[in-house]
Structure to design on (465 residues):
């Protein structure tokens, strides 16, 4: 039985030496002192497990270098299981890392027996995922795709099955659903992952230039062709070319693309010899190509060449609770990116997010959350921060429903005004603390979601002064 490989990423040489010696009886150990070295070893060695220092910050590196590297590993090496290493003073970062895809964490000073147990458990998770034809049931991210609804999990599963093949893939979906992210996931999970990923927006390039952009040209082949230029299909050799808005390609270029898909040979404009290019083609569109075929604007034979496998990306309105999951993911990402101390959404903010139809899909949600993070004046985002009207609740069917709705709104407003302090919020609406706790349980509310970053701990916050 082969020995599993562990990558140790730590900027302390003593830690690297200790782990290399202490784990050698059970694992093959490779070590990296910085993120750049870790990236190289991830590509070359393909370790099953990674231990990663949260505080990885050699001179000149960002303070959150460890977390940034974790994001890369989760995106680009999803089967590699990451265990975070932390000092006692940075456990909060370790818990943040778990939410971002690490499988576990442990604190320094290192206890080898405990670490080996954690690594064995992480390896067990990896083997289950390798053996399963479906993504793990609890997975909320697959490469750069985020979600856990049945609709998006079907996409995860299809990508997982088609990526190792050489099949051409056609991705269908509305604007803003994440078609390019699906294409990138196919690339990262394929045998072409070490090559480039080259996206081309076919609808954004003038018809007269598109053929040259795709296939390249020889010097002097037309006016202004002052030098030879490789097309994007050649540039993407060994990798994947992503043809976005494939329905916008004019008929003459469709003919040449069809020929390329048949023999994988590129002939530049003005050239005399065709060159074979090893490149995978993934295409996408939000157009109805079958209607375009009926209208004679899209070739039927090209459609069937492109759609060996078709992936339908669901709109956000069909993804249920993924809307909230994505909103929280974007809030965490942009709070860190813009260095804002935004802790979450108010309940009315979450209701507004759930009620909005999201015609612009995930892209619209991402843009609204990013703008709100930048401009918000409080620690929790409200409907007005997102430029959304508060999600209107269903019209109460009974007098009791109306009372419950008004009661919940009153409690939320008190928590917002008092930054999650239960004692002050109870006093604000003239009830006792035990009664307020009962009301929180009744309506499923968590006072902690309303606390500001610099607020006291929950125990301190709830003590009467």
């Amino acid at each position: 039985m082969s020995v599993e490989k562990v990558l140790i990423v730590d900027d302390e040489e003593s830690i690297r030496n200790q782990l290399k010696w202490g784990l050698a009886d059970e694992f093959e150990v490779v070590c990296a002192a910085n993120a750049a070295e870790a990236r190289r070893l991830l590509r070359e060695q393909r370790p099953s497990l990674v231990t990663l220092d949260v505080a990885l910050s050699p001179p000149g590196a960002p303070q959150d270098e460890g977390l940034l590297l974790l994001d890369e590993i989760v995106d680009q090496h999803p089967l590699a299981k990451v265990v975070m290493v932390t000092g006692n003073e940075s456990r909060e970062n370790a818990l943040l890392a778990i939410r971002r895809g690490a499988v576990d964490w442990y604190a320094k000073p290192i206890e080898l027996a405990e670490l080996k147990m954690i690594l064995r458990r992480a390896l067990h998770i990896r083997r289950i995922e390798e053996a399963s034809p479906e993504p793990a049931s609890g997975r909320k991210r697959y490469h750069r795709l985020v979600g856990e609804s049945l609709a998006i999990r079907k996409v995860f599963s299809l990508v997982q099955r088609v990526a190792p093949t050489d099949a051409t893939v056609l991705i269908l979906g509305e604007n803003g659903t994440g078609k390019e992210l699906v294409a990138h996931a196919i690339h990262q999970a394929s045998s072409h992952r070490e090559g480039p990923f080259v996206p081309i927006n076919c609808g954004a390039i003038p018809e007269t230039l598109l053929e040259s952009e795709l296939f390249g040209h020889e010097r002097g082949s037309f006016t202004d062709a002052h030098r030879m230029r490789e097309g994007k299909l050649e540039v993407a050799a060994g990798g994947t070319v992503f043809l976005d808005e494939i329905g916008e390609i004019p008929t003459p270029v469709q003919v040449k693309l069809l020929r390329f898909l048949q023999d994988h040979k590129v002939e530049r404009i003005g050239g005399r010899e065709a060159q074979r290019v090893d490149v995978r083609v993934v295409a996408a569109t939000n157009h109805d190509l079958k209607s375009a075929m009926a209208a004679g604007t899209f070739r039927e034979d090209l459609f069937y060449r492109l759609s060996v496998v078709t992936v339908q990306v669901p709109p956000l309105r069909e993804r249920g609770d993924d809307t909230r999951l994505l909103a929280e993911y974007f809030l965490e990402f942009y709070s860190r990116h813009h260095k804002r101390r935004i802790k979450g959404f108010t309940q009315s903010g979450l209701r507004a997010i759930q009620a909005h139809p999201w015609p612009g899909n995930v892209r619209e949600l991402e843009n609204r959350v990013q703008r709100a993070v930048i401009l918000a004046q409080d620690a929790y985002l409200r409907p007005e921060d997102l430029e959304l009207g508060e999600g209107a609740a269903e019209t109460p069917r009974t007098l009791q429903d109306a009372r419950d709705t008004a009661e919940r709104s009153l409690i939320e407003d008190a928590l917002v005004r008092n930054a999650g302090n239960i004692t002050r919020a109870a006093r604000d609406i003239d009830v006792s603390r035990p009664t307020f706790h009962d009301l929180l349980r009744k309506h499923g509310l968590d006072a902690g979601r309303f606390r500001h970053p610099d607020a006291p701990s929950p125990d301190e916050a709830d003590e009467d002064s």
Summary: Residues 133-138, 452-465 have pLDDT under 50 and may be disordered. Residues 124 and 130 are 10 Å apart (CA to CA).
